[in-house]
Amino acid sequence: xxxxxxxxxxxxxxxxxxxxxxxxxxxxxxxxxxxxxxxxxxxxxxxxxxxxxxxxxxxxxxxxxxxxxxxxxxxxxxxxxxxxxxxxxxxxxxxxxxxxxxxxxxxxxxxxxxxxxxxxxxxxxxxxxxxxxxxxxxxxxxxxxxxxxxxxxxxxxxxxxxxxxxxxxxxxxxxxxxxxxxxxxxx
Length: 187
Fold this sequence. Notes:
Helices cover 77% and strands 0% of the residues. The chain has seven helices and no strands. It has helices spanning 2-33, 45-70, 79-93, 106-124, 127-131, 133-158, 166-186. Helix 2 (45-70) packs antiparallel against helix 3 (79-93), helix 3 runs antiparallel to helix 4 (106-124) and helix 4 packs antiparallel against helix 6 (133-158).
């Protein structure tokens, strides 16, 4: 009989530990999501897809703001500078590369993919800046700038993007205008 009582204590102790660890894990998970135990929500495919759309817009805006912070107004553009600008944006946006089908809104996914592809393509041709600036400028304008500004225009058409900083808003508005002109020309 004594052995059975010891097994009950051991079982109760193990069960108690599992409950404590289980509750601890739930508490840590809720801290990450900002949800309390009483309002815990499960992730449905729709919630996840919608959050990708919103997350992209947030990351896109941050990527542009961070790039504009790093740009040196009076510096001559070099391969190194341009690569740094693109890397700044890709730090926030590379996770969306080849994720077009993950977006709830297909148009957002398509424009996001186009924008990220333009960044990657621009980085690949950046070596030309120091080697043959005129050739780089021509190829950049025909391929990268056109594709990226059209994507900016599409993204802004789907959901208006605004910046608190007036200078950043003006830079963004110029990109949107270029994108609109390219889009009309392509139609």
